[in-house]
Amino acid sequence: MHIIAIVGSIRAKSYTRALVVEAQTLLGPDVTMTIAEIGDLPLYNEELDPADESTTPASVLRLRQQIREADAVLIATPEYNHAPPGVLKNALDWASRPFMKSALAKKPVAAFSVGGGKFSGVRALVMLRTMLTGCRMLIMPQPELLISLSETFKDGELADHKVRDNLREFVAALVVWAKR
Question: pTM here?
Fold first, then answer.
């Protein structure tokens, strides 16, 4: 089984990305995960994306192909201003088009959110799940995962073993969800 991960932060030292990298180490031997690079996607513009994809940007075609080839999608989002970042929304807009050829439609997906405080990330996750419904994805209903960064990392390394255990349970649940 192969999972494509989409990280909603393009910061070089993103904690959200670090958690996805950690998730890669928690997968069983029969599961692989790659991280899609979304920082080079242009802002969505339908005029750049005709039905035949003749002028669709190469970075967009790459993202769509990575999603099509995957058995499931893992999305990790930080919360910026009570919402997922624009870069993530932009990636979902590109991947969901053209509408009848959406790479996202009927694809199993699990999403988690990362925030600075105890309840940070809740609003971003709710909004993201609404967006994924609009993309016609098959959203894993449980478990939900919200990660507070207050004591999760020490010196840039994941230090909270409970977070690691929750992350392991979460990606294992995605594998089960995708195989159903």
Answer: 0.94
